[in-house]
UniProtKB/TrEMBL annotation, chains A, B:
CDD domains assigned to the protein according to its UniProt record, in alphabetical order: HTH_LacI
Keywords assigned by UniProt, alphabetized: DNA-binding, Transcription, Transcription regulation
Highest taxon listed in the record's lineage: Bacteria
InterPro entries in the cross-refs: HTH_LacI (IPR000843), LacI/GalR-like_sensor (IPR046335), Lambda_DNA-bd_dom_sf (IPR010982), Peripla_BP_I (IPR028082)
Residues annotated as domain HTH lacI-type: 7-63
Biological source species: Zunongwangia mangrovi
Residue ranges of the TM segments: none
PROSITE patterns on file: HTH_LACI_2
Protein's name in the database: Transcriptional regulator, LacI family
DNA sequence: ATGAAAGCGCTAACAC
DNA sequence: GTGTTAGCGCTTTCAT
């Protein structure tokens, strides 16, 4: 039972009508084109009976639209991105779009390869977490009138739509929370990177320390250090040297390594030190102690991203849709940032 | 600078040669078709200068191949699947294929919608974690000679390629590990589901208990119970009622809920009870105590999946490639499954 | 109310 | 060696 694919032509032939008629009917233009009830029904019934599926490739070739949106993130296996992917996927399918997810590993070359790949495929729009050096490539997409929305970070120098969160405000507030809970020597572990979101997070921390007349302790882990053991060593020394009573981890990834270091080298400190992480994760709430986290509004980001993209897709190039959105993150307070408290 | 897209025709016109020549050159068939060095170079140079990108849609329409592979999993935001996605993505891009990831939420209707969606798009191959009731749909794909590989679970009744792991063996061994560490009342928390992998896991547990003359304590959480609080309640009562000294969680998801219950209701037990989870997660190794986990060989699964798909794609329908692979999971022993041991 | 036909961009058999 | 052309499946203008 090798039911080969049926084309619009097959239907036309079988029903003794023209492809035009079939096309009109199938595209719901029967009324508008004043196709007779009878023919309309005949076509519809037959199409159903053979389980006709239009060839979207041909359709896209003809219309120039592929109904595909690319979502390029740093690493799809990252909790934040994969959760977001799930949300975006739902919205897109709902609107008749498919979503291609891909990871650029924060590398420019890979980002470029991917963008080129998809341009060849006439992808309709791009949602991108840009790697540091692809400003030019993004600018090109924009100038070619291809809908692009950046998120997580962006390029202040070019005119693009983006959805980000107010990183510095979020970190500032979270740092203040530590101060309010009477931690005095608050360390900030981040990566050395000039990405907008990382700079903003560090700024938030520094501002909070200055506002409270506290000393700043920043550890910048080399961005491209792939050797986890080295990173662990750095963090281990840093904790020992500075006499910290609290640590703010600027990324989820660093938190995981940091917690491992604490467990291995300073197990007694896990219940003493104040700990806050940027980006939540399901497992942080069941940790001992539960870890306080700055949580990005995933749903909101996903929705904002998609409404922006869909609006850009709708508005032709004549009246470009502009949307630069800065959302707020929330602080989920858990035991790890409270001293002298029963800390299960 | 709205550089509109260039077509092969544009090139031909600009260079005063035919589209055929251009096509041949661009497809690397210059030698084979004995196009002169001169023309070849001219075309290549010009194509480069205008940054020519072939329209893949047209190409696919013509060749019938889209160079897209669909990977449909239960939930792309799940740790296991998202990590695997990352691995598959890399292999695929390397071989010139793009990958579309999507989540079926283990629902038949959604699975069907997605499959239909992609069939319309002439996707080349499918890698699928099947929802329970889509046996028929899978069988159809197979009978239509469309490459399909199932994984995580499969349908024993139909002849398909698949890559799974030996769930019962893995759980049996891990259960034995608990017995060897002198736990006596070992509970098994799973979901009520007839999926092959879940049945195999439960079988492994039961076999191990029987082999050791130990009593079996199985809790089956209703599969479609979306209310987490209810699930927590079930687990909480179960732990209290059975006097267990160890628990085996059959899925990562249950482990998370279970750990939360323990933290909230039986904090003193976290360091006494033996705990093993199915499927590892980065965070389990930094937990207090670190959680022993049955770990699926992600890389191996990803590679096996992709080599299978690629081979099926290569071998035309004449000599179907057969590969039903059963891999082994490994037990990562951490403190949570050892009693009387310093448990940081 | 329906049909013929052009054309989206590309490939490849065939012609010269 | 290079060009002509049919056709992949569809949409849509124009004709009848």
């Amino acid at each position: 039972m090798k039911n080969k694919r049926h084309s619009i032509k097959d239907i036309a032939a079988a029903l003794n009508v023209s492809v035009t008629t079939v096309s009109f009917v199938l595209n719901g233009k029967a009324r508008e084109k004043r196709i007779s009830e009878e023919v309309t029904k005949k076509v519809l019934d037959y199409a159903k009976s053979i389980n006709y599926k239009p060839n979207q490739l041909a359709q896209s070739l003809r219309t120039g639209r592929s109904k595909i949106i690319v979502v390029m993130v740093e690493d799809i296996s990252n909790y934040f991105f994969s959760k977001l992917a799930r949300i975006i996927e739902d919205i897109a399918y709902d609107k008749g779009y498919k979503v291609l997810f891909c990871s650029n590993e924060n590398k420019d070359e890979r980002s470029r390869d991917l963008i080129n790949l998809f341009r060849e495929r006439q992808v309709d729009a791009y949602v991108i977490v840009p790697s540091p050096g692809i400003q030019q490539d993004i600018a090109e997409l924009v100038s070619d009138d291809i809908p692009v929305v950046l998120f997580d970070r962006y390029f202040p120098e070019i005119e693009t739509n983006y959805v980000i969160i107010d990183n510095s405000e979020a970190v500032h507030k979270a740092s203040q929370h530590l101060v309010d809970n009477s931690y005095k020597n608050i360390g900030f572990i981040t990566i050395s990177s000039s990405q907008t979101q990382m700079e903003a997070r560090q700024r938030g921390y520094r501002e909070a320390m200055q506002a409270n007349n506290l000393k700043e302790f920043v550890l910048e882990v080399p961005f491209y250090e792939k050797n986890i053991e080295k990173v662990k060593e750095l963090i281990k020394e840093y904790i020992a040297a500075q006499g910290l009573d609290a640590i703010f981890f600027a990324t989820n990834y660093l938190t995981q390594i940091g917690l491992e270091v604490i467990r291995e080298s300073y197990p007694e400190k896990i219940n003493e030190m104040g700990i806050i992480t940027f980006d939540d994760n399901d497992l942080f709430k069941i940790y001992f102690p539960p870890i306080t986290a700055v949580s990005q509004p995933l749903e909101e980001i996903g929705e904002e991203l998609m409404t922006t993209v869909l609006k850009m897709l709708k508005n032709a190039s004549d009246k470009p849709y502009k949307n630069q959105k800065i959302l707020s993150a929330s602080l989920i307070e858990r035991n790890s940032s409270f001293p002298n408290k029963s800390r299960a």
